[in-house]
Amino acid sequence: MNTDFQFRVQGEEALNIDHSFSGDSFFRAGIKRFFARKSNVFGLVLLCLLLVMSLIGPHLTGYGYAEQNLERANMAPRIPGILSGEESLQGTNGEILVNRYEDLNLQDVYYPFGTDSLGRDLFSRCFQGLRVSVLIALAAALIDLVIGVNYGMISGYLGGKADLFMQQIVDIAGSIPSLVIVTLLMLVLKPGVGAIIFALMLTGWMEMSIIARTQVLRLKDQEFVQAARTLGAGKAFILFREILPNITGTLITQIMVSIPSAIFLETFLSFVGLGLPLGSCSLGRLISEGFENCLLHPYKLFPCIVILVLLMVACNLVADGLREAFDTRTAR
Amino acid sequence: MRKYIFKKLMLSIVTLFVIVLVLFLLMELMPGSPFNNDKLSDEQREALIRAYGLDKPVMVRFFLYLRNMFKGDFGVSYNLSINTPVLTMIRSRLPISMRIGVSALLLGSVIGLAIGFLAAFHQGKAADILCMVVSVIGISVPSYIFAIALSYYGGFRFKWLPLLYDFRNPVVSSIMPVTALSIAVMAVIARFTRDEAVSVMKSDYVMFARSQGLSDSTLLFRYVIRNSLMPVITVMTMLLVGLLTGSLVTEQIFAIPGIGFLLSSAITANDYNVVITLGFLYAGIYVVARLILDILYGIIDPRVRLGEK
Fold it and tell me: Which chain B residues contact residue A315 at CB under 8 A?
């Protein structure tokens, strides 16, 4: 920051009235604002950690996520130096302490999150489940980008009758509670990740299209667009080369906002028993399996819930940070 | 004004029609039939299908259904409780869901408003940070996880409250479900109230009022709180609808005999009429709530009805 000129107001006190800042583009300034807040950085680091774990997590313990070992079913978590693998079972005559590792005489066997009722390693399963959630999040982002952004931008730019018609469709489709439609859709389709993504495709793009449209309406009559038009630029050029770069920040924010709800949708559907089929592995399925016998073995429910919560918190923190950094209305 | 209301009303009616059509077609595509009892012979199944008129073409059945709907007849249940009119089934369950939903909304809103205003008045201080933490956690964690945690600790480990819903003791046994559902409401309201109050406090008219020498308390109660409440009420209305749908899992966890529980059992049992009616009910509440809000906004703010440019 340089001081261009100063007023000398009585003695020592100097009053700076004009500053010149080095010119940051809107996008770069937004990124600077984003990193200026600790909670945003924390969210981003957490998100990156979770992404890395979703890639390497399932391979860390050496047990495959679908590998069954019925002899080692229902083992409590055991981590060297931290958890002994003991668990207290609530019986009719008080609590009993059980250590299945010692009962089975397993010296150097460690299951950090324990095993489920079929003896599958919960550590591998949790991170495999995280992988499914990340996949769904990516799909949601892609749907936002491909369907939502294009629909909204085209509708906003065309204006007139076409815009009215396209908005009427969004209005009607938006008034149908998506949970009802998605629930029914899951019954019609074969359960699986594909079905969830298809359901997202039908319901997930509307919010993004509304935001993209408002942004285009805001920019489409500004001078730089008019200049391009005067110079003979085509519609596609103006939309994607002139307007799109200027609304990237808002669009990225909206993508981050829609990701948690997509992740929530999978866990919700799987919990109700509609999401992924039995035997597959996702955070929602793990939670619903853990819930079935959480009164006896609460450790089965704990890690997958913690991972889900961390993922949701990380996404929401980043989304909040982006909104504050790029939203011109609340920017400080 | 009349034209604006008429337009919104027509749009709502078209929406409801589309919803019925979509629900009907989805049910059509659904695998399985409502009569999948193994004891039934093929002839008996045929007879049942004919008796309920399920052998007619889709479009004929759709318009029959529509006609009956106008008469207030939503059909009968095929297999959850055979031949009971769907409306009767819903009538006994809706109040339970409504009571829990409204209590959660009220509880969450009151706490959320308090946290939100406190945070706005003490920006950057402890209250503000607390508000941020509460809202991030409340928005990030799905309500059924709170429900599981509450039922495990409050109901099973420490036995403070009944584990399952008990219709002989509805107040005590709905404390946990209401709390679980209200956390998300609280988080959304707290966040929204804070942002709204902050932007009102920054506005020119508040600055002007302050420059006139009004005391802080007058400023808060006459200007800030009143002006930030309106948008918050909008959010509350939308949240109520979300609560009714969101209670699907919570009702399962606490075995509450409400409409969410009914919907999930109807889905697994292929009980067509129940599913369509409940889907229509959810959508109907949503559409009507939006219509009322749109009209209210049109009355309050002329910019809305003249179309923002």
Answer: 140
